[in-house]
Amino acid sequence: MNVWDQYAPELVTDLYEFTMAESYLKENMSGEATFSLFIRAYPHHRAYFVSAGLEHLLELIRDFRFSEASVDYLASTGKFSRDFTDYLKKVRFTGTVRAIPEGRIFFTQEPILEVTAPIIEGQLLETLVINVIQLETLLASKAARCVHAARGRALVDFSLRRTHGVDAGLKAARASYLAGFVGSSNVLAGKIYGVPVFGTMAHSYVTSFKNEMDSFLAFARTYPDDTVLLIDTYDTLRGAEKALEVARRMSAEGKPLVGVRLDSGDLVDLSRKVRKIFLDGGFPDVKIIVSGSLDEYSLEKLLEEGAEIDLFAVGTRMGVSSDAPYFDIAYKLVEYEGRPILKLSSGKKTWVGKKQVYRFYDEDGKMKEDLLCLLEEAVPGGEPLLETVIKDGELQRSPESLERIRERFAGEWEKLPHIYRSTYPVETYPVKISADLSELERQTSEARRREEIEKEW
């Protein structure tokens, strides 16, 4: 049996979720709890996040249940009572989830989603929620930065071979397409998500032929309507001259050479010289595609220095978010049985209670500021960001298509002021706290400290 046959989403969790759940059961703690998922701080050079992963999470929550095999495994560990494993057989998610839809832009301290459910159900979801939302939000946010740095040029995801696993590669293809990439090299992502797939050839293809020209002509014969040639295997400029000859032969047969790809060397200098070769040769429409260790920083630098590039194939550094490979993301209990809950640990403060985020826009339709407040507060003129997506365990809408989410992000991006889009932002977006939330936080904090001081042991 391979590992995929044993995949059980209900076991995608940390052991302490189960130990806490059994203790809740023994203590007859079944009250309603609210857990809030949020990112505490921005990674370096970040000023926004792109919400992603919700659709996958909703599928997992909808189908959340413990199979006989999963219960048998937990029993085999010897860590849990028979009462608890019998209880797990009946567990279904019966609560409510409110969330920021995929493709929307959000900021630190704002809840990405809140789960309200019997405390055991909410607790058992913690690791799964963090894992799914962090990865896809991380990748979508990184991809959005690359799209911005590309200044309108097309981008394709080439990250699969070095992502942190097969599933991560799929999510990178989906998240980058959501954020504005035109497609991916990942064929499975094309099948599953409908992401347009792109590819050219590898250096091994070129070197398998006796000479470079033979490889170019062979590829053109195989794909006469979609020929892109990799020209840097031996000498990039000589490769470009050979590609120009291929373009002439294809043109005589009524076929275009779509493009050439550069994967190494001084990309600024080479791209400009390759462009000149095709312009002087009478083929101005041949696209120049560049790959090789690209991210938003290198894209911005290349274009600032005058590189002639039509499409970027962005791989590893986007697919693993190399400069910021994780978020300081947390899923914290903020209310239990109507009682506000907070954490007072240094540097790990939480905001109490069920919450909503309202967004305000300026006269030009650009994002102006957000207000974090209690769910029950009325905020005139603000747009609420969190929507109810599950209620009483039931999905409240049909699954959203990736194209719809991609369109939503494009609309959001237009509303984000340029100062926050920057590769090197110097300002952070204002997220204000309502007076009611601040007061409840103050009262809860004082009460909590007083109780700890006065507690008799």
From TrEMBL:
The Nicotinate phosphoribosyltransferase N-terminal domain is annotated at: 11-133
Citing just one GO molecular function, the answer is: nicotinate phosphoribosyltransferase activity
Q: Which SUPFAM superfamilies match?
A: Nicotinate/Quinolinate PRTase C-terminal domain-like, Nicotinate/Quinolinate PRTase N-terminal domain-like
Query: What does the record give as EC number?
Result: 6.3.4.21
Using the record's annotation, list all stretches that form the Nicotinate phosphoribosyltransferase C-terminal domain: 383-440
Q: Which reaction does it catalyse?
A: 5-phospho-alpha-D-ribose 1-diphosphate + nicotinate + ATP + H2O = nicotinate beta-D-ribonucleotide + ADP + phosphate + diphosphate
Question: Can you cite an annotated GO cellular component?
Answer: cytosol
> Per the record's keyword annotation, is Phosphoprotein included, yes or no?
yes
What pathway annotation does it carry? Cofactor biosynthesis; NAD(+) biosynthesis; nicotinate D-ribonucleotide from nicotinate: step 1/1
| Domain Nicotinate/nicotinamide phosphoribosyltransferase span(s) in chain numbering | 155-347
Stored InterPro entries: Aldolase_TIM, N/Namide_PRibTrfase, NAPRTase_C, NAPRTase_N, Nic_PRibTrfase-Fam, Nic_PRibTrfase_pncB, Nicotinate_pribotase-like_C
Post-translational note? Transiently phosphorylated on a His residue during the reaction cycle. Phosphorylation strongly increases the affinity for substrates and increases the rate of nicotinate D-ribonucleotide production. Dephosphorylation regenerates the low-affinity form of the enzyme, leading to product release.
| CDD domains in the cross-refs | NAPRTase_A
Q: In its keyword annotation, does this UniProt entry include Phosphoprotein? A: yes
Pfam families reported in the protein's UniProt record: NAPRTase, NAPRTase_C, NAPRTase_N
Q: What's a single GO BP term from this record?
A: NAD+ biosynthetic process via the salvage pathway
Please provide the record's keywords in A-Z order: Glycosyltransferase, Ligase, Phosphoprotein, Pyridine nucleotide biosynthesis, Transferase
Function as written in the Swiss-Prot or TrEMBL entry: Catalyzes the first step in the biosynthesis of NAD from nicotinic acid, the ATP-dependent synthesis of beta-nicotinate D-ribonucleotide from nicotinate and 5-phospho-D-ribose 1-phosphate.
Q: Which family does it belong to?
A: Belongs to the NAPRTase family.
Q: Which PANTHER family match?
A: NICOTINATE PHOSPHORIBOSYLTRANSFERASE
What name does UniProt use for this protein? Nicotinate phosphoribosyltransferase
